[in-house]
Amino acid sequence: MKVGVAGIYQTKFGELWERSLEDLIREAAQGAMKNAGLEKEQIEAVFLANMLSDQLASQNHLGALLASCLQIQAPVTRIEAACASGGVAVREAVLLIEAGIHEAVLVVGAEKMTDAATTEATASLMGAAGEDEALAGLNFVGLYALMAQAYLQEFKALEKDLAQVAVKNHFHASFNDKAQFPYPVSLEQVLASPKIADPLKLLDCSPITDGAAAVVLVSERLLKKLGQKPVFIIGSGQASDSLSLKDREDLVSLKASRLAAKKAYQLAGFGQKEIELVEVHDCFTIAEILALEDLGFYPKGEGFVAEQNGEVKLGGKRPVNCSGGLKACGHPVGATGVKQIVEIAQQLRGEAGKRQVQGARFGLAHNVGGTGGTAVVHILRNGG
């Protein structure tokens, strides 16, 4: 059974101190249902993606929180897979609809992070890493810095090659009023920003973010009945790898990303050459380069060249992170994977405004948890 994207919505991402987690969940959920043209009574199940509410918002029972604020009785299930929580939640909804169990499923991703001190948020995020890594004093900037060091050394890339990712994604975010940082930055600004963990600088890193996103997924039959623009999820893959970097076979590739992509391509019935736009998990600039290679768009060691020559910029061969990515749109971790689906669906509907990729038919969303312990890939198609 085909899975259609009937409703999409994203809140503003940023430092939303005046908004509660409940506020963000409500806005996103109601926005997606309104966009779908469905009443809450027609929603048969809900998945809520979140990583940190128990630690940063003192709320463990998010299913009941969502049910209360929306006043619905449909079953609500919280999904936690670190920063891949949103992608996993979308995949669970896809599987339910494909199995014929439900016809309309709401997926919400939400996170409230900026009320906590940066040190507290950073420490909480380390729950997605290995205990050995935390005991060694590492954080995620340090872990991805190790991957960046290995990549630069093996492939003779330079720090400015990493910085190009940030420049491109901020340029894209300048066309996105929902982005946390909707403005461009220069290569010189990125390179001059404070170094956090060699070779990663402040502007190589995604921010701490508040925000929510939601999608309503439905059966093909219901999508036709609703009269929505036909956008379908035609491939979905998920894979896992070790929690800690020390147990990986390779520091310059995420095996889980490769395996998840392989499964998604298999289900879609075609490979990476058909994909026309991509949202990848650029929690750090090195992560986007690794993703471009792991997803099969470029040979190993050549992803940074695509950043140099503009192939992955709006107007290029295959634009990447038109939303601004995690780097500039923001990274409210539980919401990120859902926001990626919102962006791709918006593009395939032709509703992306100044960042529209003209004539796009196929898009891919790539969501990662931790340093690659979990990866999810979805392929979407414009059915028009």
Keywords:
384 residues, alpha/beta, Peroxisomal Thiolase, Chain A, domain 1, nine-stranded mixed sheet, 11 strands, globular
User: Measured on Cα atoms, how large is the radius of gyration?
Assistant: 19 Å
Element-level helix/strand string: EHEHHEHEHHHHHEEEHEHEHHHHEE
Query: What is the tally of helical segments?
Result: 15
* CATH fold description: Peroxisomal Thiolase, Chain A, domain 1
What spatial order of strands do you see in the largest sheet? 3-2-4-7-1-8-11-10-9
The assigned structural class equals: alpha/beta
Q: Quick one: CATH class?
A: Alpha Beta
The helix fraction, in percent, is: 25-40%
Q: First CA to last CA: what distance?
A: 17 Å
CATH superfamily: Thiolase/Chalcone synthase
Biggest sheet record: 9 strands, mixed
Strand content: 15-25%
The beta-strand count equals: 11
**Total separate domains:** 1
Poorly predicted spans: none
Look at the structure and give the mean pLDDT. Answer: 96
CATH architecture: 3-Layer(aba) Sandwich
